[in-house]
Each structure stands twice: as C-alpha cells, then as structure tokens.
Write a structure and sequence with these properties.
This protein is 18% helix and 23% strand. The protein is of the alpha+beta class and 552 residues long.
C-alpha cells in the first residue's frame, strides 16, 4: 500500500511539473517613450492573429473613454478636451480585438437625440447635438476629469469646475470598439442619462489602465504580462502608439486628407486646434513563451501605421509619410541600448523574472500594506509619500489611485479609481513618492496606495483624504478683458495684444491715456466674462478683428 501511495504521489508530482512546463510564464515588455502624452496599448496575439490579452493601456483611452464619448470624432482638440470620440486613437488594436461596446452620443436624461423630450416635456433641441461643443446644459453635470473647451489658464490643470454632457447610448445596432469612461462616481439623474450608471460596468480595461509614462525613460514600473493558463508556445507582442498633433510633411496640419470638422455653432469654432497628424504607429515582436525560456526578442523598427480615421484596422506598411525622429512618428519609441541589444521594443522570457534554475516562482501572495502614507497638497497636485513594507511578500510596484470626494478608497473599489503614476518597488523600508497632477483647486481628493506582487495580486489598500489649496492670485499688468476671454495671460492672442500695448500705446501720451482708462474700467467686466463661457465666447468674437489688426 505504501509503495502504491508513493507511486501515485510521484505520478502527481511529475504531472504537475509537466503541466507547469506546458504553460507560459511571465513576460516583460521594455520600451522607452519618446514623447509625453502618448496613448499606448500593448497586447498579445497567438500566431493565428487572435488577441489573447491586453495587459496595458494608457488611462485616457482605457479609463476615461476618450474614444467613446459624446461629440463628433473630428471636432478640434485642446487640453483635456471634453468632447469628440477619438476613435482613431489606437485603431489597429481596436479592430483586431473586435470587442463591441455601446456607442455613446450626446444626450442625457432627456434621451439621445435632438427630437427627444426632457422631464417635464421640454425638448432637448440642440443640447443633444453631436456636431458642436457648445450649449449642452440640459444634459450636463459636474465633470471630474475633462476641462471646459473655453480654455485652461495653464497647461497642467483646468481653469475652473466644469459641467459637461456624459452622453447616452446610441440606439442599436450602433456600437464602438472602445470602452466608455469608468471614472464617474457621482451622478445628477435630473440631467444625466440612466446609461451613465452602466458605463463602468461595460469597461473591462480599468484594471490594466495606467497613467501615461514619462518620455525619455524606460517604462517603469516594468510592464509584465502574467498569462493565466496560456499554453507554452510562440506568440506575438504588439505595441501601438497614438499622438495628437504629431504633424509631418506627409500628414500636415492643413492636409486635405485629414480634415477637422468645423463646429456647427460658428461662435465656438474658434476653440481648440487641429490635431490630425501622423496616425498611430505599431511595433511587433514575435517571441516564445514557456517556464524556462530566457531568450530575448526585439524589434528595431515599426512594422506599420494605422488608417488615420479608424475606418478600418488596416496596418499600412512603413513609408515616407511617417517620420522617424525622437518624439515623432516612429520615434514615439526611442532606441534603447542596454549593452546587449539596441532596440525599440524588447520582450524578455520567464527566466528573467522567475528563478534562473527553471523552477516555479514562489506562491502568489499579496504584499503587506505600505506604512507612513502622507499626502501634501498644492493647488493642482498632490505629492504622495509612503514607505515600502519591511516584511511579507515582496511587491514589484506600488499602484496609486485617486478620486474626488471625502470618502477614503477601499480595496473593493481600488481598481475603478483614477490611475496615477505607479512607483517601482525599491528595497523594503524605502521611502517612495508619486505625484498626482491636473487636479481642481480647493477640492477634496481621496488617494490610495497598494503594493502589487510580481504575479499581479494586490495587497491591502491604505487611503487618506486631503484638499488642494485655495488659489493664490497674482496681479499681472496684462489685458484684463483679453485674459478673461482667452483664459490665460500667456495665451498667444493675449501676448499679441500686450505687445501692441507696450510698443504702440504706452509710447505716446494719447495711447497712455487710453490705456489708463481701460485699466480703470475693465476689471469688473473681465470678472463677469471670466465666469461665463458664453460671455467668453462673445468677447473672443469681439476681440478677433483687433487681434487680426495688431498681428498684421
């Protein structure tokens, strides 16, 4: 009997070992972005072209739904532009994955078309119009991420709190290849469509969404794919990168092949700028995956580019219309020299992550929670400081999430919150830092941190709440009305008016008198303009002839 038991146990052990050798181990993808604010997706396919997994996507596409939101796709853009479904953002991946989501159009509680009725019988009218960024008040509620299209006073935050339409589902059979946004935590059902309550449920990419990595540095923490029961064999890693306003001679700002759609409300067509330049570029790396392989595979050049408007998933071969210079075109990824290879993308096999003797990695255990969490708030940012745990399972990175509000973030809601830059794990007990940017001033935010094990399991969540600072205003000797109209004293039109004042008006007595009268009477009017988007639009229209004159 004892011999039989030992034989059975040995058989089970051999079978377990064989099964372990027949599946993929972890795979690391290394690359260095060459530009900020890229949209990036990494996915894995088998040799038949079937998408196996999407282990990484940048949050504006994966979490904030930039490719599936209200507004016609070809309207212009600006900092955190709130409308226009950018379904040309990562189209090769989207078409190859072919996952169908409900399509979102302008709308709210009153429906999803200009013919539907609001509660109480009032027609939505143009408030549900998809061809404009203007006048959606009947279907708009508080906006936690996107900015007013009337402009931002700087390049890192919104000018003020903004209300905008979250949209409503289009009627079937319409669909989108991209997920809806999943960052909404508060709703106003008097104006919001009931569909907004379903957005996060439809989004299956939140857990793999991450903040856009900084330029000119290897992606850190490391991007690792942890396959779940995927058979050992040959696979292909793909990386697609999209960038707004990446113009080239072959894809210029004024190219007739890339038309931006004019706003149907002409007074608002002045807002934003053209963005349709070079389309997304794609890198491809075939690799072998098992538990013991230690060979690296690399790509040194891009394999093709997408159709500019997402009308299909065609991968066009490289040509002269796509430039290859740092930060542009194929140069959205930089050459990396690690002493062994020079590459744009490198895929590393399992033995670089699991024990080199080919054994299995240790059991997947969640890391201990971090300690010493401390939040330091500025006007539009929060610095997150914490200490790596000194015991328990080792984390390979620390994920940071945040949301607007006074309630701390718990473990069951962690993955649904907005992703901030993750932090690479150092030694146990190291003091680590992350920064959350682009926040509203004088607003409460909950921030949370958790360790992530090499196998992908998350540890306990630690969360605190802090409020950003009250704005500190600085009096600038600028053009008050123009600054209010354009949103910033440093905006290019305001700069032209200021140059005209300094060179033409302040150099003679009559000009000095006109300037003095202007400064005496303009501040109250500027204050009124700055708080009303409609007045700002009217002021810009009124100033346009003067700006044209002084520019000439």
């Amino acid at each position: 009997m004892k011999t039989l038991v030992l034989a059975v146990l040995a058989s089970l052990a051999i079978g377990s070992e064989a099964r372990a050798a027949d599946v993929c181990g972890p795979v690391e993808l290394r690359f260095e972005p060459g530009a900020p604010n890229l949209q990036i997706v990494a996915w894995i396919e088998d040799l038949q072209g079937k998408v196996i997994d999407t282990p990484y996507i940048t949050r504006v596409t994966g979490q904030f739904g930039v490719a599936n939101r209200p507004g016609a796709a070809l309207l212009k853009t600006d900092f955190r532009w709130p409308y226009s479904r950018r379904d040309m953002v990562l189209p090769v991946w989207a078409h190859r994955r072919d996952h169908h989501y409900p399509k979102i159009v302008m709308g709210g509680a009153c429906g999803n078309s200009t013919q539907t009725l609001c509660p109480g019988g009032n027609k939505c009218g143009s408030d549900c119009e998809d061809s404009t960024i203007a006048y959606h008040s009947l279907v708009s509620s508080g906006e936690p991420f996107y900015c007013s299209p009337s402009g931002s006073p700087d390049a890192v935050s919104c000018a003020s709190r903004f209300t905008g339409s979250k949209g409503a589902y289009a009627d079937p059979p319409a669909f989108s290849l991209y997920p809806p946004r999943a960052d909404l935590t508060t709703f106003n059902m008097a104006v919001d469509s009931p569909d907004v309550l379903d957005f996060a449920k439809q989004n299956d990419l939140v857990a793999v969404s991450a903040a856009t990595p900084p330029a000119n540095a290897l992606v850190s923490p490391a991007l690792v794919w942890y396959p779940q029961g995927v058979p050992a064999g040959d696979y292909v890693a793909w990386i697609e990168l999209s960038q707004e306003s990446d113009f080239s001679p072959g894809h210029s700002k004024t190219s007739p092949d890339h038309p931006n759609q004019p706003d149907s409300v002409s007074a608002w067509d002045f807002e934003g700028h053209n963005f349709l330049g070079q389309p997304s570029v794609v890198y491809k790396v075939p690799f072998h995956c098992d538990q013991t392989n230690n060979a690296a595979a690399i790509a040194t050049q891009y394999v093709g580019y997408s159709t500019w408007d997402n009308s299909d998933g065609t991968l066009h071969p490289p040509d002269a219309t796509i430039v290859d210079k740092p930060g542009s075109g194929a140069g959205r990824l930089l050459d990396v020299d690690d002493g062994t290879d020079v590459y744009r993308v490198k895929v590393l096999g399992a033995s670089t992550i699991v024990p080199s003797d080919g054994g299995m990695p240790p059991a997947c255990l969640a890391p201990d929670q971090v300690t010493g969490l401390a939040l330091t708030a500025g006007q539009t940012s929060i610095t997150v400081n914490f200490t790596a745990p000194t015991g328990g399972s080792t984390a390979n990175r620390f994920a940071v999430r945040y949301r607007e509000g006074n309630t701390p973030i718990t473990g069951d809601m962690f993955d649904q919150q907005v992703a901030a830059p993750s932090v690479s794990a150092g030694a146990p007990g190291d003091h680590l830092t992350s920064t959350v940017d682009g926040l509203l001033r004088q607003t409460s935010y909950a921030v949370a941190v958790r360790g992530i094990a090499p196998c992908g399991k998350g540890g306990a969540v630690v969360s605190q709440v802090v409020s950003t600072e009250v704005p500190k205003f600085v009096t600038l000797h600028g053009c008050f009305i123009a600054t209010a109209a354009y949103g910033s004293p440093m905006e290019r039109h305001v700069s032209k008016l200021r140059e005209f004042r300094d060179s033409r008006l302040l150099t003679n007595p009559i000009g000095q008198l006109v300037t003095a009268i202007y400064y005496a009477f303009s501040p109250p009017l500027a204050n009124a303009i700055s708080t009303d988007p409609n007045l700002r639009a009217l002021a810009r229209a009124a100033l346009r002839p003067l700006v044209t004159l002084v520019t000439r």
